[in-house]
Each structure stands twice: as C-alpha cells, then as structure tokens.
User: Which sequence fits this backbone?
C-alpha cells in the first residue's frame, strides 16, 4: 500500500513559497497587473494541499510499519506545527481575497503577515518531517 504523505508534503511548501516570491515581486515592482489570478491560484492550491498533506500524515502514522523508535516529542512538535499551518494557510487564502480585491490596508497588512507566517510554518513542518526521517528513521511507508 502506497502512502501519499511524502509526495503531498512538498506541495504546501512549494506553493506557499511561490506565492511569497510572487507577492514580493509584485510589491517590489509596485504592480499587480495580471498577477492577481496567479497569486489566488497558488495560495488556494496551497490551502488544498496543506489539508491533504495533513490528512495523509495521519494516514502515514496509522500504516507505519513500526520498525523505528521515535520519541513522542518530535512527532508531537511536527504534528503541532503542521496543525498551525493547516489553520494559517487557508486563513491566509481567505484574507488574500479581501487584500487583493478590496485593497483595504488592514487586509493587505494582515494578508502579508499571515503569508510570512504560513511560509515559516510550512518550512518548519517540512524540516521537522525531515528530522523524523533522517534522525530517527521514521519512514512513512506501509508495512
């Protein structure tokens, strides 16, 4: 049985970081012309893949073969940061709608702060997942 968590886990990172880079480019150029649909698509895709990655992580935990010993604290931290990302990325996507369409200053500031936070959370979640695999041998392959 194939576990979808390893390939799915890369998508939130790639999509959120792509959104952050494109948003930075638009800020630098002071021009969003033509980029708003792309920004929306990237972040909404990130929200969907964050949910799928989170759910597949639960699945991975259930089907893990148990040939490795991992202390509870690293798994709990990976889970906690992943859960924070699960709430932050969709919230950022919702606020992005008001920030890009309405150009309300408070929405724009909130969106940009949440985007930075989302980028930090998905990056740290990925780092912690890598630590579980490479430090503890926690392969998420079905047994």
Assistant:
């Amino acid at each position: 049985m194939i576990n979808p968590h390893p390939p799915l886990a890369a998508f939130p990172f790639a999509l959120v970081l792509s959104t952050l880079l494109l948003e930075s480019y638009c800020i630098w150029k002071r021009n969003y012309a033509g980029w708003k649909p792309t920004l929306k698509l990237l972040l909404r895709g990130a929200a969907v893949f964050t949910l799928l990655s989170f759910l597949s992580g639960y699945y991975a935990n259930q089907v893990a073969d148990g040939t490795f010993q991992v202390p509870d604290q690293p798994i709990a931290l990976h889970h906690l940061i992943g859960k924070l990302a699960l709430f932050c990325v969709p919230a950022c996507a919702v606020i992005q709608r008001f920030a890009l369409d309405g150009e309300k200053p408070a929405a724009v500031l909130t969106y940009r702060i949440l985007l930075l936070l989302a980028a930090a959370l998905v990056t740290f979640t990925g780092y912690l997942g890598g630590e579980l695999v490479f430090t503890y041998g926690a392969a998420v392959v079905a047994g």
